């Protein structure tokens, strides 16, 4: 299932839970995400106020979102400018009981195909991943992402 903008109300609770599933991904950060339905709505509002479009592809089991990937992209350029748009994949997560059967690969590939057909002005899609998250790095390389930068985070103990 795809949507642009806000999550359909009937999926909001399960979508928020699916977003929280990202905490299970290997990562170096000590901070986990807590995505309540209210927090999801707040985030959607902030992204819209920044002039970005949220495009979500979700795997849905009945009326339950069990996996998702989120792309953010600026509006298409005006006819005056011929600058290509750049999109970014923000998060991809799969509920624990639905892992290892391919939903992350499927939704990422499907979201990119949909973006390409609906937004031909988008020339590049970026994503960033924790180095420790080998499964999502493998998926990204399999569907065509090319690693370009290794990002490190340093912490100064206070």
Would you mind describing this structure in some detail?
With 158 residues, the chain is an alpha+beta fold. The protein has one domain (2-142): Aminopeptidase. Helices cover 30% and strands 24% of the residues. The chain is built from four helices and five strands, in the order E-H-H-E-E-E-H-E-H. The chain has a five-stranded mixed sheet, with helices on both faces. The radius of gyration is 16 Å and the shape is globular. It starts with a strand and ends in a 16-residue tail after the last helix.
List keywords for this structure.
158 residues; 30% helix; N-acetyltransferase domain-containing protein; five-stranded mixed beta sheet; Acyl_CoA_acyltransferase; alpha+beta
Number of E-type strands: 5
What is the highest CATH level, the class?
Alpha Beta
User: What is the chain-wise order of helices and strands?
Assistant: EHHEEEHEH
Tally of domains: 1
Q: Walk across the major sheet and give the strand order.
A: 1-2-3-4-5
Quote the distance from N terminus to C terminus: 45 Å
Poorly predicted ranges: none
Estimated radius of gyration = 16 Å
InterPro entries: Acyl_CoA_acyltransferase (IPR016181)
Protein name: N-acetyltransferase domain-containing protein
Organism: Actinacidiphila guanduensis
């Amino acid at each position: 299932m795809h949507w642009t903008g806000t999550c359909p109300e009937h999926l909001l609770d399960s979508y928020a839970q699916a977003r929280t599933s990202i905490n299970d991904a290997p990562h170096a950060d000590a901070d986990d995400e807590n995505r309540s339905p209210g927090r999801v709505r707040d985030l959607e509002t902030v992204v819209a106020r920044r002039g970005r479009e949220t495009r979500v592809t979700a795997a849905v089991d009945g009326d339950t979102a069990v996996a998702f990937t989120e792309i953010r992209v600026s509006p298409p350029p005006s006819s005056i400018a011929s600058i290509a748009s750049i999109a970014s994949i923000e998060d991809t997560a799969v509920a624990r009981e639905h892992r290892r059967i391919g939903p992350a690969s499927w939704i990422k590939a499907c979201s990119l195909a949909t973006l390409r057909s609906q937004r031909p002005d988008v020339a590049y899609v970026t994503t960033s991943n924790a180095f420790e998250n080998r499964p999502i790095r493998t998926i990204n390389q399999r569907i065509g992402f090319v690693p370009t930068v290794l990002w490190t985070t340093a912490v100064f103990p206070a």
